[in-house]
Amino acid sequence: MKRPKGLVIAIDGPVGAGKSTVAKLVARKLGYLYVDTGAMYRAVALKALRLGMDINDPIVMAMLAEATDIQLQQQGDGSVRVFLDGEDVTEAIRTPEVSEASSIVSAHEGVRKVLAERQKAMAELGGVVMEGRDIQTVIAPDAEVKIFLTASLEERAKRRWLELQQKGISVSYEEVLQEVKERDERDKTRAIAPLRKAPDAVEIDTTGMTPEEVTEKIVKLACKRARV
User: Fold this and answer.
1) Which of 16, 43, 49, 67 has minimal Cβ neighbours within 10 Å of its Cβ?
2) CATH of the domain at 86
3) Helix crossing, 19-30 with 211-227: angle to 10°?
4) Integer-rounded Cα radius of gyration of the chain
C-alpha cells in the first residue's frame, strides 16, 4: 500500500538495545517523524506518580490515560519534545522511577487500548519511524520495514548506565544491570503485549556497533523497500 507521506518503519527490542537513539537518527536521515510510543506510557506513569495513584490498578490507569493529553512535537532540528497536559516533560519521564512505573503501567490492557488508537492514527499517513512495544504486531502490522534491535545484556546495561550518568543520575552499574535483567524478564513474560519479534522483522544485533552503523543498515533496508 502506498502511503501519502512515505513508509512506516517499526522498531522494537529490549531495553538498552539502542531503539531510541537509532530511531531518531533514521527519522532525521529520511526526514520522517520520530514517534516514541514508549514516551506516551512514561507520560501516563509520570502523571500517576505525581498524583499518588495506584499504578497497579488497571481500571484507574486506563481512566487516567483516557483523560490525559499527550503530544509529541517535532522540533526544527528533528528532535521531539514530549508534552503532558501542556507541560514539557521530555526529561522528567526519563528517570529510573518513571521507567520502573512505566513498565507496570504499560502492561495494563486498558491503557494500551487507549494509547494504541492514538498511535495508529499517527501511522496512517506514513512518513514515520515508530519505536516501542506492539508497533510491529498491533499498531502497524502492515509496516513496510520492521526492525528488532537486540544486544548482549552487559552491553545494554552499560548503555543504560552511561545514559543515566550523562543525565546526572547517580546509580551503580550493578544496580542498572539488575534493573535491566528484571525488566527483560517482566517484558518477556507479561500477559499483555509481551516482548517478541514479529515473524517478518529483521533482527539486528547492535553489540559492538555504533548507532550510525545501525542507522545506515536500516536506511538501506528502507530505501530498498521504497523501490519495491
Assistant:
1) 67
2) 3.40.50.300
3) 50
4) 17
List, for residues 78-125, the tens digit of each pLDDT value: 778 999 999 999 999 999 899 899 989 998 999 999 999 999 988 888
Whether residue 41 lies inside any domain: the answer is: yes
pLDDT digits (tens, 9 = 90+) for 119-172: 998 888 899 999 987 788 888 899 999 999 999 999 999 998 998 888 888 899
Beta bridge partners of 12: 148
Specify if 225 maps to a domain.
Answer: no
Would you give the distance in Å from CA 117 to the centre of its chain?
16
Give the integer Cα–Cα distance in Å for 132 and 178. 22
Is 18 within the bounds of a domain?
A: yes
pLDDT digits (tens, 9 = 90+) for 39-56: 999 999 999 999 999 999
Task: Report how far residue 30's alpha carbon sits from residue 119's, in angstroms, rounded to the nearest whole number.
Answer: 20
Q: How many domains does the chain have?
A: 1
Among 7, 16, 51, residue whose Cα is nearest residue 143: 7
Q: Residue 68: count other Cβ atoms within 10 Å of its Cβ.
A: 18
CB neighbourhood size of 166 (10 A):
8
Domain membership of residue 219 (yes or no) is no
**199-221 confidence digits (pLDDT tens):** 999 999 999 999 999 999 999 99
Distances (CA, A) of 55 to 90, 96, 132, 191: 20, 15, 20, 17
C-alpha cell read off for 97:
522511577
